[in-house]
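Incident log, structure service

09:12 report received: a user says their structure output differs between two submissions of the same chain.
09:20 pulled the input from the user's history:
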Amino acid sequence: MKIVILDGYTENPGDLSWEGFEALGDLTVYDRTPAEQVIERIGDAEAVIVNKTPLSEEVFAACPSIRYVGVLATGYNVVDIQAADRRGIPVCNIPTYGTTAVAQMTMALLLEICHHAQEHSQAVKAGEWASCPDWCFWKFPLIELAGKTMGIIGFGRIGQAVGKLAKAFGMEVLANDAHETESGRAIGTYVTREELLARADIISLHCPLFSDTEGIIGRENLAKMKDGVIILNTSRGPLVNEAALAEALKSGKVYAAGVDVVSTEPIRPDNPLLSCENCLITPHISWAPAASRKRLMDIAVENLRAFVNGEPVNVVNLKS
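09:34 re-ran on a clean worker, output below:
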């Protein structure tokens, strides 16, 4: 089997191995593939592995040898699913691999908002502590989390992992999700979205991007929140109306925000959140610790192995 990986660099910049894929066929790996080279690089490959490189109807039509598409991510919107369906091509994703990593990053953003550890370290290195007339100083308000209320929208695996961490910090956990579970009830209290918006001191997004969640952090819902709320997004950029959030950050309605995702990635220079000093923005790295990427790699290999053995798993299409 000929296997081509069109954009392998972010998954494996050199600290992992492609040997699992190499054992399954004739492998070619590209770090990145421009749109105009996708068809040429696929050629007569039977298995195509992508992360963020789009596979359109045009690509499928020009590459009739494709029998399998593997996505090196949970989201698979880069693949024209209808085009794959029409050709009977399974599209397989990675449903869970970064739960602990994303939960950890969520709390990292929150803790940086609460303590400004990096900025205080820089102040010390700039001599501000050595020249301070007192034995300590702080440049920003410091926030204690115990007793605060964390509202989590989307209470699946990652949301529940964040809820456990929030409880460990002494926080009350409110959850909103279309599907309530016993494991969720053991961590937090399920409430309506309206109640969560009204009561939470911190709101963390861990829901999928659907029509009813797109722009969920917008002017209408921001108005329902407490003054001084903290907002975290390590899920999907379009869950947030960035112009509305920027206005709320500048007005003080939102005390601070921490986001690892934005509406267009890489971030555009005109993204309104870039002008907000009280907004932490990281470059979509919550998934990226080596241990998390190793799990992703292992699952991606097993997905292809299962297809080769005639029993594909983690198939997101061909449902009917």
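09:41 both user submissions now match this output. Likely a transient worker issue. Closing.
09:42 reviewer note: The two ends are 27 Å apart (CA to CA). DSSP finds twelve helices and twelve strands in the chain.
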